[in-house]
């Protein structure tokens, strides 16, 4: 009778769990991304650093400890090419900022809030086409008898074709700008979303000019998004081997192309060392940016 009364009173028998399956699975919705990042990002990155100090064999590598791959990078023309690619990546970042960030400001200031995300999506949509198609399509546009040179000559602006647009560092910069421009637009828009729209109205009421408003109000508030987008553009400019392969000349070499050439030559420790250097560069930039601007503000609206 006691057992029956206890069951009737609502007691749950031992070993029986009536927790809804959705509640049991809910914690894994947050753990799964962490597990995925550890398994397919953190561990491979750590292995990359370990493999970079392995000794090279004829077709692979063997366990050991040597800094020969790093010496092969820092004490050769590869370092010069890497530094040159950094310079041109910075140029690409500056150009992307000049063209991309005003778009983010315009969308946030002038487009109704219900339509802002759709406008940003429409801008990003063309960039969802395969990058190799977009980059290769630039060749008939930039080449000696391409669309740009033909148009400029027909308008009488130039007398002979401009040869610096393709198979040069200039061509690589153009490719980087057209490939990575959405990064600065999207991250800049995320930062501008945290800026209340009434701030623009207050600036207009106080008679603040466009330049002072941009320098004193918009830039400080949007700095985390600008920096995050700039880092993405900079690192991709260093790492995407496709751009110098298709648009660059003999001297247009970046870290991604150096790693690709090392893999082709079966020098896997060197490729791992280049990857580790790129990883260290990205980590350092993100650490500096977080200390300066607190990058978490991109996803945190202003109170």
TrEMBL record:
Q: Name one GO biological process term.
A: transmembrane transport
Task: Please state the protein's primary subcellular location.
Answer: membrane
InterPro entries recorded for this chain?
Answer: MetI-like, MetI-like_sf
List, for all copies, the residue spans of the domain called ABC transmembrane type-1: 82-289
Task: Give the location in the cell.
Answer: Cell membrane
The protein's matches in SUPFAM superfamilies, at most eight in alphabetical order, are given as: MetI-like (SSF161098)
Give the membrane topology, semicolon-separated if more than one. Multi-pass membrane protein
Task: List where the protein spans the membrane.
Answer: 28-54, 88-107, 119-142, 162-190, 221-248, 268-288
* Superkingdom, natural source: Bacteria
Q: Which family does it belong to?
A: Belongs to the binding-protein-dependent transport system permease family. CysTW subfamily.
The record's annotation in Gene3D superfamilies points to:
MetI-like (1.10.3720.10)
Q: What is this protein called?
A: Spermidine/putrescine transport system permease protein
Any GO CC annotation of this UniProt entry? plasma membrane
| Alphabetical keyword list | Cell membrane, Membrane, Transmembrane, Transmembrane helix, Transport
